[in-house]
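Worked example 2:
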Amino acid sequence: MAITEEDRIYERELLRAIPVVDGMDIGLVDLSLIDLTLSAPLNTHINYEGTAFGGSLNTLCVLSCYLLVHHRLKKEGLEFNSLVIQDSRISYLSPVHSDFKARSQFENVDSFLKLFKRKGISRAEMRAVVTCEESKSPLVQFEGRFVATRDLNRQAPPI
């Protein structure tokens, strides 16, 4: 799906709200209700081995999953006060030697939304894979669980 101007505004607002990613040179490549792809250049995330830094790969996976859950809640018109990562697992399958992308997907979107609407709390089971131009097969695999809550007594986040 093509990125719209509305998506670009959303991207800027979200990334501005997370200060740690300001210098990471991350870009939104693709966005839909069920998946999201972020890109990052190797030269900003290179380690002493000349490959992508593991922490950057993990961060891009976490961010792509977080932003997808955030985006879906907003598109559904569901107010929430908190969205946090609960736990995660990452496998580094092969070194990343060039610019890379992380593509996230919802594993349980229907049950997540149903429970959130009913109880105001739900866990999103997410997956992400990192690929690059030179290798379309996954170089990194990520699984994470994110918890969204709605507490009517707390103020919603500014974005």
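The chain has a mean pLDDT of 91. Helices lie at 5-17, 54-75, 109-119.
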